[in-house]
Amino acid sequence: MAEKSKLWYLENFNLFNGLTPEEMGRLNTISSMKELAKSEPIYFANEPSNSIFFLKNGRVKLTRLSPEGKEMIVALINPGEVFGELSILDAGERTDFAFAADKSLICAISKEDFRKFIEGNPELNLKVTKLIGLKLRRYSERIEELIFKDAPQRIVSFIYNFAIEHGKKIGNEMFIKPFMTHQDIAELTACSRQTVNSVLTELREKGIINFDRRKLIINDEEALKKYL
Description:
Mean pLDDT: 89
Helix content: 40-55%
Distance between the termini: 45 Å
Oligomer: single chain
Largest sheet: 4 strands, antiparallel
Number of helices: 8
């Protein structure tokens, strides 16, 4: 991939807003871009956590294996998001697997190179610290939901939070495109696929949402929030 193209992609990550041309040039030299085919692995559990990644195109799934050997989705990464960033705090091994859910384009930076880079930029260092704190808080909130909320509440909570973070509001409606499969939602909320289908169908029949294989629309945000 051409260096100019790589730099253009880096410049379009919100995390790097405000960096000088010289700083962007340095970031360009310590990073590498890679195109991934669907289902191609990025890293495995128990590997050394040596890099952090930025997703430009496509989607990436982070998964873990239960003691029984069942694969569970930990997170679904969307364009513009960072993953593997907890390696900055932990010198140990990865605890999850990462692979491309679709054809994807990622940027990889050695965590040591990135650590040195942000040490010279207090503003970026603060952004990264906040990002890691937010990620840890989300993990904590997800654990609380698994403990204290029933299956329908977890599904509605996931849809609502996903819409707030990735949706686009047009008038009184919120559009989420592309969305994800019922199976993905089931694994992310620790529910069965049948439960996800039942909850979404009920919400659609009440006119609160609408959906197909490509998108989901929240027609009535306030009505949906009553299910949280």
